[in-house]
Amino acid sequence: MAKKNKKPGSNVIATNRRARHDYKILETHECGIVLVGTEIKSLREGKASLVDAFATIDEGEVWLRNLHIPEYSHGSWTNHAPRRVRKLLLHRREIDSLLGKVRDGRRTLVPLSLYLKDGKLKVELGLAEGKQDYDKRQDIKRRTEEREVVRELGRRVKGVKG
Fold first, then answer.
1. Whole-structure pTM over 0.70, yes or no?
2. Distance CA 102, CA 6 (A)
3. Are 112 and 126 spatial neighbours (Cβ–Cβ below 8 Å)?
4. Which residues contact 8 (CB under 8 A, 6 or more apart)?
5. Please, are residues 33 and 88 in contact by the beta-carbon 8 Å criterion?
6. Quick check: 29 and 90 in contact, CB under 8 A?
7. How many degrees, rounded to 5, is the angle at CA 45 between CA 62 and CA 23?
8. E-assigned strands of 77-119?
9. From the centroid of its chain, how far is CA 34?
10. For the residues of 112-139, what is the DSSP string, one character each?
11. Is the dihedral of CA 46, 51, 57, 63 positive or negative?
12. 36: number of Cβ within 10 Å
């Protein structure tokens, strides 16, 4: 029997939709994350929240803060703290590059999604720059114009007038 091709991102556990609204994403990095046993079990149940999560670089290491992974339902005294600080795994040159870009204070590191890849949890980390209110309004306006164009083209293809 032939193997079915899985779509990339089919094992997405959580996404941070608000991040793309509030920030302009300049570049993304895929990184690993250090977890304890009950955290990965809870994540495999599909429970996590990236709301208010962000990453910092301290002493040459990248740390993910405010990621909420609820306690494992079948865990006992070995359960983890839901909002503990977790270490992200990146290559040294990637960390150095990110440190140079974040140092000025205008940019920040925001987790965009959590997903399983080959049985390992990965975090898509975005280098982001904050959007102003007028940038957000322009994005909304652009999306509505694109929707109207697609709707109008659909009418013309079907032969509907006006």
1. yes
2. 35
3. yes
4. none
5. yes
6. yes
7. 40
8. 86-89, 107-117
9. 16
10. EEEEEETTEEEEEEEEEEEPPHHHHHHH
11. negative
12. 15
Contact 70, 127 (CB under 8 A): no
Cα separations in angstroms, 124 against 92, 146, 151? 17, 27, 33
Structure tokens at 2: 């032939």
Burial of 11 per CB tally in 10 Å (0-12, 13-18, 19+): middle
Residues 14-53: tens digit of each pLDDT: 888 888 888 889 999 999 999 887 888 788 887 788 888 9
CA-to-CA distance for 89 and 95, rounded, in angstroms? Answer: 9
Q: What is the pLDDT of residues 53-104, one digit of tens each?
A: 999 999 989 999 998 888 877 766 777 767 889 899 999 999 999 999 988 8
- The amino acid present at 60, given as its one-letter code, is G
Helix (H) or strand (E) holding 62: strand 61-65
36, 51, 35: which is closest to 112 by C-alpha? 51
Pick from 32, 4, 55, 22: nearest CA to 114: 32
Distance of alpha carbon 107 from alpha carbon 95, whole angstroms: 14
* Amino acid letter for position 43: L
